[in-house]
Amino acid sequence: MTAYLSIRRKARAEILGGPDKHVKSGSALRLTCLLRRSTEPPVYVFWYRDDRMINYDAGAGVLVRHGRHSSELEIRSAKPADSGNYSCVPSNAKPASIHVHILNGKPPFKGRHEENE
Question: Residue 80: phi, psi to the nearest 5?
């Protein structure tokens, strides 16, 4: 008798460039959340900064775009007050987080950074 074990991995979100991202103040901050192992698109994807939802609380200069298996958050001119822990929470996948550091001056050489001048 042969038995088969089926292991199903749960869908999960992944924010590119994590676990930390350094961005120069005044530059654009772009976070891309990809859905891995998802068989269908999510009903929703919510973005949070430090546990506060920003999808519908976003002001001018903040955009949220959704694709079939991705979501992108963009802050056109990031400032130090935008620093914090950002989370992407899809309806059908395990959420993902990234810590964003908005710095005055040049980002440190160590780690990942993005400079849009």
Answer: -50, -30
Going along the chain from its start, the domains and CATH numbers come out as 12-112 (2.60.40.10)
Grouping H, G, I as helix, E, B as strand and the rest as coil, residue 66 is strand
- Burial (CB count <10 Å: 0-12, 13-18, 19+), residue 66: middle
Residue 2 pLDDT = 74
- Exposure string of 34-44, with b = 16+ CB inside 10 Å and e = fewer, is bbeebeebbee
- As given in the structure block, the two tokens for residue 98 are 């990234």
pTM of the model: 0.81
**Rounded to an integer, what distance in angstroms lies between the CA atom of residue 33 and that of residue 92?**
13
> Is residue 19 reached through a cis peptide bond, with omega within 30 degrees of 0 on the bond before it?
yes
Sequence length of the chain is 117
